[in-house]
Amino acid sequence: MDQYPLAAIESINYTIVYSLCSTFGFDLFNILVTGWAQSAFYAIWIRAGDPKPQPGTRQFVQHRRRINIIVIVAYLLYTIYEADFQLRMAGNFYQDLGVNLGVEERGINSRFRRLTLLHHPDKVSNDSNRSIAEAYYVHLKLCRDVLMDPTKRFAYDRLGPEILSWQRSTTIPDYISTGIRNLFVYYAGTAGVLTLLGFLGYIKQAAFWRFFALATLGIFELHALTSPTFPGILTKVVNPVLAFIPLHPQFLPFQLLSLLRKLILTLFIAFSQIGPLLGPLEAAPPTDDQVSQQQLQRLGALAGALEGESNMLMALEMTPFANDESAMREMRSRMKKFLVDNTIRSKVEVRNAMGEAIARRRQGVPHGAVGAR
């Protein structure tokens, strides 16, 4: 029962939870950050008073797509950093002993003796710290025992600390067969989960590339498990690059595979988000508010044009009187009288009131008598 692939089943459960939570959570995060970034972009690059692209226009949609892709790539890079940070914090038996990955048995024993002189529980006088020192010393002894055993060291390098619970595995073929069974359960279950999520509509884009990346990672993981030496990508690419990063430890095969698994899951989410953004650009249909706003803008522009034309015509009509101040005053007076008279004649209420006033004056009727009748 101890060799049943429980770790693989837990990894599948992690895949389901991670995919669903990351998809839904990232959708909300993506909408909020993209909208804020687009507003900030317009505030910085468009001068005050200049028109900004309106929602629904082709330029607005194009800007939003580009900003959205930048946000997704930034999220992908952060996810890689977070996975790397978690691996560095978890450490490995080599780091705990303070030895390099290619250390031999003599180097392991020498380093363990030095650590024993520093951290042996008998050297701790405080009883409250003795239990902590004992637990730490037991862990150091476990690290020494695993790395001194060639079989366990081979299995640990490729499968990680979960091999400590495989009590029935005593030889390298035992560890390899158990590891292969766990890989089969993990990848078959993950493929089934991805198929189900795609069928339900949660992850639609890049279905071929999802399964291609999953199959490629599975083959690489199988190679890393059965190879007598570390994979070449780890010894020739990854670890030499990590050596240039200050205080960054080198990775073991199981750590590299753990990082690649999280990276693949993140890429699945990135595919589902970036895929729709790579299609043909289509402007979103404007809403009712946007249509009303556009109509008001066109009406305002038309009114401004009409006002400019009327001012120009008025200036042309007044050109003969431009140098005659008295003629200009008389023209303004007559125009004012004309406007007043025209307004009085066009208003029915004004005409009725004037008619009643004139009728009272002609008949000598006192003020207010007409209204009293």
TrEMBL record:
Bilayer-crossing regions: 67-83, 184-203, 210-231
UniProt keyword list: Membrane, Transmembrane, Transmembrane helix
Name listed for the protein in its UniProt record: J domain-containing protein
Taxonomic lineage: Eukaryota, Fungi, Dikarya, Ascomycota, Pezizomycotina
Positions of the J domain: 92-160
Organism name: Aureobasidium subglaciale (strain EXF-2481) (Aureobasidium pullulans var. subglaciale)
Pfam families linked to this entry: DnaJ
InterPro entries, per database record: DjlA_DnaK_co-chaperone, DnaJ_domain, J_dom_sf
UniProt KW Cytoplasm keyword: no
